Amino acid sequence: LQRQVVQAVKRGFVVPNAGHYTGTPYESNLEFTIRFMVDTGIVGASWVELPAGKYSMRPGNNTFCQYEVSVDYKDLIAHEPVGEWSKMAPLRILSLDIECAGRAGIFPEAKIDPVIQIANVVTIQGQKQPFIRNVFTLDTCAPIPGVHVLSFQKEADMLLKWAEFVQACDPDIVIGYNTTDFDLPYLLDRADALGANRFPFLGRVRDIKTNVGTSRFSSKAYGSRESKDINMEGRVQYDVLAVMRREYKLRSFSLNAVSAKFLGEQKEDVPYSIISDLQRESPETRRRLAVYCVKDALLPQRLVDKLMLLINAMEMARVTGVTVNYHMTRGQQIKVVSQLYRHSSRQDLVVPVIESQGGDNQYEGATVIDPKRGYYDIPIATLDFASLYPSIMMAHNLCYTTLLNRHTIDRLGLVKDVDYTVTPTNDCFAKSSKRVGLLPHILKELLSARKQAKADMKKETDPFKIQVLNGRQLALKISANSVYGFTGALNGRLPCLQISASVTAFGRNMIDQTMQAVERQYTVANGYSHDAVVIYGDTDSVMVKFGVDKLDEAMKLGQEAADFVTKKFISPIKLEFEKVYFPYLLINKKRYAGLYWTKTENYDKLDTTGLETVRRDNCPLVPLVLNTCLTMLLIDRNVDGAVEYTKGVIADLLQNKIDLSMLVITKQLSKTDYAGKQAHVELANRMRKRDPGSAPQLGDRVPYVIIKGTKNAKTYEKAEDPIYVLDNNLPIDANYYVEHQLVNPLTRIFEPILGSKVTSLFKGSHTRTIHVAAPTTGAMARFMVKTNTCLACKTPLNKEYQHKAVCRHCEDRLPEIYVRNMDTMRELEMRFSRLWTECQRCQGSVNNEVVCTNSDCPIFYMRKKAQKDAGEQAKVMDRFDYSW
To answer: pTM for the whole thing?
Structure first.
């Protein structure tokens, strides 16, 4: 109806006896939810008061809420979330996980494959321990300490009882890991397949059915993705997997990998292929599944608590004025829009509707000063502009409401530099003395509120309140930094390139002015010990070499320079001294490493930017080697030790001594169509043919290793699944890892120190390799016969000795060779036993067989390798004739 009215206003309409009217609609594209919140002053996750005498009680028949009332929206009192109203409500959180009995090689299908278990953990926000832990199981299940087990003989009964449980515990927030795209849609589809018609009413409104839809999300910051959309009125859905993908850059987003990184623990990962067997076997095996399922429900809640995910989400909703659901499912645009509408309504302004034009209009970005590359063994001071882009917008009053054209300037008789500012892009904006812009006003409030939140944090003693305040100040920071980007988004709600281009132009000029001011002021001619040199600058910071040897002198000069430069700019622009790097390795633009000092007593950390220590598109061996080398170079100052360590790693790699888990590369399967053949895409296609049930899906990160191939084989042809490599004993292409994974990163960090000698890292006696035959394919392969060799002298054995341990020339050494191989066998068995026991501890039982296939766990690869090595050695031992 709204759309029809808007179109009618645009087209024009006839009013009887009054004539033809046309108009321009304003604010007609604002979502109803945000419209209501703006008009009432309500923000997300905040407290609302219903004054006594202004509301009436209703019969509680329409919802599952404890109370139902009627109230006029004008009587609502929205409390700003500060002071006593900043506390979090005791929200009830349900974390769930399901298990399905799938078929071999086929991903579970709701129309066919049953739900066999549903685990639930219910917690009150702010409390450390859940007050409900239960699991609904199909068929009997042995007891689990601390968990209420509910068993059912019929799947439909189990699903209906679970739906009743949801309504009984009445959660405010429903969380899980991939619940939005898998667990909840699967439950709804399965209930439909079973004809459980009373199941799909999981929200708080009685007669509104819970359905599954599809939504698309696109954002410059987060990319594009498609996900399921499930209506569950009155309950916030918070999928922890979606949050992790948005907020963190990890090699793997499996629950195991994320838990290992942030919680420091692993869990048993039961493969799909044996779930049905465990379900069919006995109450004890079903108990094993249930323990696994309950842990999968508990871990998302623990991640939410540890990373303060809900607290941060609620504070962001409070700061930007959107709902928590909007924060989860939308980008930054809607958050800026919400703030813009709130502030414009207070100033009696209306916001126009601008049709998105898209287009290729670009504006120049930030300045990156060419780096003076090298290794600096003296302190390098870093000067940073505080909140650069927001402060530029405030200082120069850049806003939609202050943008001027030549006609307006002439009409009002405005004077340049008195009434308005001309930006470096030749755009004109009124000064704040004439009119304070809406965007600068919003930014001032955000940054003032952040300053207050940080001050309150220092005074607060309650750990939970400190977490809330920290979440608030982070939300305020992100929100302030988003305003500039909002104006430059051509496909956004309200693009204005005059603002965004002016902001970056001012920023470029400021970096140049800072560089010139520092280098002109801090000179020998002005009484300083050395001439200062700006060795690098990027967007909002400059790195300065003052030439002094001592940290305290560099820090003093850095602070002095920051104060000196700040005086040259308009308030609130401020240049701050933040840190000193000592020593400092400047490799290239946006690539550097150094010891980070904020006080002279001790360094804070080893800081790296743009290096493979933090990137995800290489194998784990690369960041391990780089971090170790940087530690030796920058902390220990041991160049020779770093060189020897690097040579040792390369030697181990070429001799097949590096664990397979360190060689796994992961890349995201982000689309189905690529311009050229990609290793991870081609592997995913092969895996889909082998086993569709376990093959990577669109959006997953695909792990692979590069194996030896036939001559001239392409890299994408040599990519293989690590588990498949272990199972089939395929040799790794060690030279690929040296040449394509290690050479460039190591050259980058060693070249500024070693110069031309850096090539010695990759040449010399340490690069001798163990020859491992590549897989043989083609017509000749069928005619080849494998021949055993003597375990002593390695001579190929003739037909008579083919199945014996040694040749006839080495028979007198048989006892010696036997003892040597027996020692090897014992070592391999002990290694496998230790790893097996470690996996049993992880799964919570030293009696059950280890079935875990957690490919994100390094112990998994070690265990598989140890098992394989022990098996191969057992075959060697079988060649000994024990009759001697």
So the answer is: 0.82
